[in-house]
Design goal:
By secondary structure, this protein is of the alpha+beta class. It has helices spanning about 1-15, 30-40, 60-70, 75-80, 95-105, 110-125, 130-155, 165-175, 205; strands spanning about 55-60, 85-90, 160, 180-190. Helices cover about 50% and strands about 15% of the residues. The chain has a four-stranded antiparallel beta sheet, sandwiched between helices. Pfam families: Nitroreductase.
Length: about 210
């Protein structure tokens, strides 16, 4: 019981103390290996049919940060934070289903279950409308983004998710193929100051029970 209470308290502190930070200490860097570990932890997030459509471009080079800055509407955290992750969603993630589920079999999934499920699943995603495929990629991108931000906070880093950037310029500059869609940018580093206090609406205003309240 004591350990359960401690874990619960730690998790509550983690989600309560996380803030979107826009002012970063530019002297702080994060090693490539630690950034990889953050991404590994983030990709433990769930995804539709476990297709893991997230793709990451991690920007740490000062010259590339400077190129990204105007694309990101000159948000200074892109330059000052240790790294900015360009999070993309793959609308053709189903094409990796065989590899993903072969790995699942190696991890213990029955091969019979894999062989029965994968062909049907691939056909379902292959015939999905572009709008639905985009929606799936964005939803799964949101899941991995939140997990990345919490993983960073657990390691003592700060983050900010950004939707304010030019998708068109990002796609052009980084030569992003059509099947990958920008989801968001996430800067990671050490805060140079506190974020503004944020209020949340009372849960009663955003929750209905058993039917939607009008």
């Amino acid at each position: 019981m004591e350990m359960t209470q401690k874990v619960g308290a730690d998790f509550h502190a983690l989600i309560s103390e996380r803030q979107s930070i826009r002012s970063y200490d530019p002297s702080v860097s994060i090693s490539e290996e630690e950034l990889k570990e953050l991404l590994r932890e983030a990709t433990l997030a769930p995804s539709s049919s476990n297709l893991q459509p997230w793709r990451f471009v991690v920007v740490t080079d000062p010259a590339v940060k400077a190129e990204l800055l105007p694309i990101a509407n000159n948000q200074q955290q892109v330059v000052d934070a240790a790294a900015t992750v360009i999070l993309l969603g793959d609308t053709e993630a189903y094409k990796r289903a065989d590899r993903i589920y072969d790995l699942s079999v190696e991890a213990g999934m029955p091969k019979e279950a894999r062989d029965a499920y994968v062909p049907r699943m691939k056909e379902y995603y292959r015939t999905m409308s572009p709008e639905t495929a985009r929606s799936v990629a964005l939803i799964d991108g949101g899941l991995v983004a939140m997990q990345l931000m919490l993983a960073a906070k657990a390691r003592g880093y700060d983050t900010v998710p950004m939707g304010g950037f030019s998708h068109e310029k990002l796609i052009e500059h980084f030569q992003i193929p059509a099947h990958l869609i920008p989801v968001m940018l996430i800067s990671i580093g050490k805060a140079a100051g506190q974020g503004y206090p944020k209020a949340r609406l009372p849960i009663e205003e955003v929750t209905s029970w058993n039917k939607l309240d009008q």
